[in-house]
Design a protein that fits this description.
Layout (H helix, E strand, L loop, with lengths): L1 H7 L3 E9 L5 E11 L15 E11 L2 E9 L5 H8 L3 E11 L6 E5 L2 E7 L5 H8 L12 H14 L6 E2 L1 H5 L14
Parallel strand pairs: 4-5, 5-7, 6-8
Antiparallel strand pairs: 1-2, 2-3, 3-4, 6-7
Length: 187
């Protein structure tokens, strides 16, 4: 089981959904997917927290192949890390949609034979934003388990026909900017 393999390799964290769906062979995951592991912290081999993750990832697996991966990336330069780490697990026709914090405009980017839908995003829940962008509402998920909701989301992303341009990865980098973090807390 692919997700169990990721679990055993400590590639998943902040898990909210991690179970089979009601459709045979389909497995759903929601949480964070590790892109860069943290440094080794001690002689026992335990690690520090990951250096980078796909935040709030929405993943659907079919017979140990990734059908859908959506989530938030803090910067576009992490996209090749995703492709490198997980490419052996991509199903043909993998659906991907990433909200990228430092992207100035929506783009489609082909990288290593996979088409990535990339949308600008500063904050907020990825699930809710994706529901809005896919024109889904709560009625579309009525009566479904958390795992089966991921199937509904996959169907929406799979059928999504973007109306924005394509670019190479290098050209897409020209549409990035430096994210300025706002200080929060007591004044």
């Amino acid at each position: 089981m692919l997700i169990k393999t990721y679990e055993s390799q400590a590639l998943l964290c902040n898990v909210s959904v991690n179970a089979p769906t009601t459709k045979a062979g389909l497995y759903a995951f929601r949480g964070d997917m590790v892109l860069e592991e943290g440094d080794i912290a001690d002689a026992s081999g335990r690690r520090m927290p990951p250096r980078s993750v796909i935040k709030q990832a929405i993943v659907l697996v079919d017979n140990d192949k990734l059908l859908l991966v959506a989530g938030a990336l803090p910067e576009l330069t992490l996209l090749p890390l995703f492709a490198e780490r997980y490419r052996n697990d991509f199903a043909p026709g993998l659906c991907t949609l990433f909200y990228v914090a430092n992207l100035s405009k929506p783009l489609q980017v082909a990288l290593d034979g996979v088409n990535y839908l990339l949308l600008p995003h500063d904050e907020g829940a990825v699930w809710n934003t994706l529901m809005e962008d896919m024109k889904l509402d709560k009625d579309d998920f009525k009566g479904q388990s958390a795992e089966d909701k991921v199937i509904t989301m996959y169907d929406a992303v799979h059928g999504f026909k973007p109306k924005f341009g394509s670019a190479s990865f290098d050209d897409a980098l020209a549409h990035t900017f430096v994210v300025k973090k706002e200080a929060r807390g007591p004044v």
